[in-house]
Amino acid sequence: MTYAVKEAFLTLQGEGMQAGSRAVFLRFAGCNLWTGREEDRRKAVCQFCDTDFVGTDGAGGGKFADADLLARHVTALWGEGAERLLVVVTGGEPMLQLDAALVDALHAEGFRIAVESNGTIAATPGIDWLCISPKAGSDIVQRSGDELKLVWPQAGLDPAAIEDWDFAHFLVQPMDCEDREAAMAVAIALAMERPRWRLTLQAHKIVGLR
Ligand code: SF4
After folding, report:
1. Are 131 and 93 in contact (CB under 8 A)?
2. How far is CA 210 from the centre of its chain?
3. In 10 A of CB 12, how many CB atoms?
4. Residue 202: CB within 6 Å of ligand 1?
């Protein structure tokens, strides 16, 4: 298949249990919960997105005719000589495009594959680190993985109702919104009241990384 990539770049992972790790971010174009156009935001299932995933015009983006070409592109971004450790596959919704061929091709290049998905599409087997970030009003079919990252607050999502999902880590992340202080306060409150949840911050934004 042809893969549509919004952007791809080398950085440090900013969120979750692997925060601080060098990683190539591979951001696929497109999402099934929002078109990405501002005029559609209010009627979208997911309305708080902070990511531009429309098109293939970002740095390192483009259309890739097959999995091997895309995997070699990721390798080139990582750089020669350094041990290849981590590619973070995100979007948009990465499970719209991350198929078995690309999983195999990235593994063949020596990468561990971390994925950040909204959980509405079953994850492709072979992913090494699966982060699911549930969105209120969506049908979550992927209820197991490595980390469940709850962006908070979200009306219509009850943390207590998802605590029995099969994840190793339960993370609460303040929503990046106009009232950040209020979001931080309720995220801290959730972690204090329900100890299963650990506070995670978007460190890349704090330190000025992409
Ligand atoms: S599901 Fe994720 S990528 Fe899609 S609109 Fe929501 S935050 Fe953005």
Report:
1. no
2. 14
3. 16
4. no
The radius of gyration computed from the CA coordinates of the chain, to the nearest angstrom, equals: 17
User: How far, in Å, CA of 162 to CA of 166, rounded?
Assistant: 9
Residue 167: the pLDDT is 98
How far apart are alpha carbons 87 and 111 in whole angstroms? 6
pLDDT-based confidence at residue 179 (cuts at 50, 70, 90): confident
- List all residues 6 or more positions away from 30 whose beta carbon is below 8 Å from its beta carbon: 4, 36, 53, 54, 91, 92, 93, 96, 97
Per residue in 163-178, pLDDT (tens digit) is 999 999 999 999 988 8
Q: Which of 147, 132, 166, 7 is nearest to 74 (CA)?
A: 7
| Residue 119 CB less than 6 A away from ligand 1 | no
C-alpha pair distances (Å), 117 with each of 39, 69, 135, 185: 23, 23, 10, 25
Note the pLDDT tens digit of each residue in 112-144: 999 999 999 999 999 999 999 999 999 999 999
Cα–Cα dist 185/188, whole Å = 5
**Whole-angstrom distance, CA of residue 172 vs CA of residue 191:** 7
User: Taking the model in full, what pTM does it have?
Assistant: 0.95
**How many angstroms is it from 121 CA to the middle of ligand 1?**
13
